[in-house]
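Handout, page 2. Input:
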Amino acid sequence: MEWTVCISNAIRYIEEHLTEELTTEDIARQALVSPYYFQKGFAMLCGFTVGEYIKKRRLTLAGSKLVSTDQKIIDIALQCGYDSPDSFTKAFTRFHGATPSSVRKGEAMIKAFAPLKINLTLEGGDTMDYKIVSKAAFTIIGISKVLRYEEAAAESPKLWAAFYESGKDIHVRSVYGVSIDEQMDGDRFEYWVADNYDPAHDIAQGFSTRTIPAHTWAVFACKGAATHVMPEVHRQIFAEWLPGCSDYEIAAGYHIEMYGDPAAYANGVQDDSYYSEIWIPVRQK
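Output:
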């Protein structure tokens, strides 16, 4: 089943069970992929996380019920996954810009967040540079933190900032950004800021090591300013390469970004010729 069809099935499942308990594991099961890569792929394709999508759709439903039914506000809150009036009111007000009470009284307008419809096609004109590489197990050294998928976009930059502010980059270069979810079935993963480990040197205080198993990797080239090119290549991987690849599929819960040395470029990571890579473990279908 193609990746975009998998995501479409997951969205259909969410819409059919919007007022019921929804877990990432159950949703990913409909997509026939692991929760790890389902959550990554969903965010890359849709521009927001699974949790954000569910929240916006439920708050849209809540607004509709407030203006079209006589249901009690607390009952609507419970149907939409909120266990207290206060938490519902805060979330509703942030989304709609008005309180549930003011909407019920007809004093304010509500917002509508429509269900997603995935309709992605390969249209040519885009070129992706990649290679398939068999790589032996290797060990990284660095710092790590366990992150929830829903908070990763905000929290991973904080780990990078802490890495540089603490001066740890003097001892260990920031060659990799590594995401690890070996079981691929939860709502959390391990994120590393790391370099290649040299066993000839002692492990400096504050650092840990982790072995990345041997895998076949699809390695995608990113050429240009990292803040622009790397997100675009990520999008292309999930929107174009995976749906159109007849030979390979995702094999394991690892995702690696490899960064070139910023000092080698006149404008660092923003240089037009800056080079980085994205590594995804794959296996033949």
